[in-house]
Design brief:
The protein is of the alpha+beta class. It has helices at 4-16, 19-26, 30-44, 60-88, 100-117, 169-175, 181-184, 223-231, 241-249, 279-291, and strands at 49-51, 56-58, 92-98, 121-127, 141-145, 154-167, 189-192, 202-204, 210-212, 216-220, 237-240, 254-256, 262-271, 311-312. The chain is rod-shaped, with a radius of gyration of 32 Å. It starts with a helix and ends with a strand.
């Protein structure tokens, strides 16, 4: 079986015409160099080098072999340089998976900022609510909402998430503004219904009092549709802060029961391993951490904010 190390050693000995000089340049013991040459000649069944006490020369077949070996070693060196250069400069494709809701709100701006900072990196976003297999699907980084299941993936905390009770100014002007949990439950609601099932949407005060959604008159498996319906005055709703923060800031939605917060979770970046992580992937993860600290939406009141080092999940 061919040993490429033998070719590299032979090429260096032939180039320097010295076992000692070749050993020094390769960073190997002279005995190792001699053994590699002996093994190569034995495998080929031919003498490649003519040795005397004062001189080392190539045989005729050795010269022909050296000519070919030089090309092979040059190709190997060039291949190594390609990998090294790629590792030194972030470039290439980064494939990202993220939930549809997040991808359709703030993630586009985050990706655009990254593209401007790293023009040699190509980004491909798979917006899906399916939990993809990063390895099988060829995904470099997954953005997921915790809690996360046990796995061999590495997770980097990005930002806290929570939910607020909201309604449009037009709806409140007509129906009145609920100021207690009991009043909140009497209002019709527009709510996100994943897979057609009612989710346990509610918000809770610091003292533990819970304000639950009452009659759901409009339900949808599309979070965006629920947001639009709430903006249009369909009723009260409990919606993720990253969906409603801008609408609250712009006055298009009013936050109800301001001390009440619901559905506290955290956002993570997950990836297969920190070992030999490609610079383009590391750059993207670092960019996410910076972009979400602080998060581009309203901070969860009194929610822990852990933007930290990688952990296994």
């Amino acid at each position: 079986m061919m040993d490429l190390n033998e070719l590299v050693v032979f090429a260096k000995v032939a180039e320097t015409r010295s076992f000692t000089a070749a050993a020094a340049e390769l960073g190997l013991p002279k005995s190792t160099v001699s053994r590699k040459i002996a093994q190569l000649e034995e495998r080929l069944g031919a003498r490649l080098l003519q040795r005397t006490t004062r001189k080392l020369a190539l045989t005729e077949v050795g010269a022909a072999y050296f000519e070919r070996c030089t090309r092979i070693v040059a190709d190997i060196t060039a291949a190594d340089r390609i990998v090294t250069d790629a590792q030194a400069t972030p470039r290439g494709l980064v494939r990202v998976s993220a939930p549809v809701d997040l991808a359709s709100t703030f993630l586009g701006e985050v990706l655009a900022d990254f593209s401007r900072a790293y023009p040699e990196i190509l980004l491909e976003l798979d917006a899906t609510d399916r939990i993809v297999d990063l390895i099988d699907d060829g995904i470099d980084v997954g953005i997921r909402v915790g809690p996360l299941p046990e796995s061999s993936l590495v997770a980097r905390r990005l930002a806290p998430l929570c939910a607020f009770a909201v309604a449009s100014p037009a709806y409140l002007a007509k129906a009145g503004t609920p100021t207690t949990a009991a009043e909140f439950a009497t209002h019709p609601a527009a709510m996100f219904l994943p897979n057609g099932r009612r989710a346990p949407w509610s918000v809770a005060a610091p003292d533990g009092e819970v304000a639950e959604v009452g009659e759901v008159r409009l339900g949808s498996s599309s979070m965006l549709a629920v947001v639009q319906a709430t903006l249009a005055g369909a009723g009260v709703s409990v919606l993720p802060d990253f969906y409603v923060a801008r609408h609250i800031t712009q006055g298009r939605l009013i936050r109800l029961l301001p001390t009440f917060v619901g559905d506290r979770r955290e956002l993570f970046a997950v990836y297969p391993s920190t070992r030999n992580l490609a610079p383009r992937v590391r750059a993207f993860i670092d960019h996410l951490v910076t972009a979400f600290d602080p998060p581009p939406w309203t901070r969860c009141e009194k929610a822990p904010h852990h933007v930290g080092s990688p952990t296994l999940v």
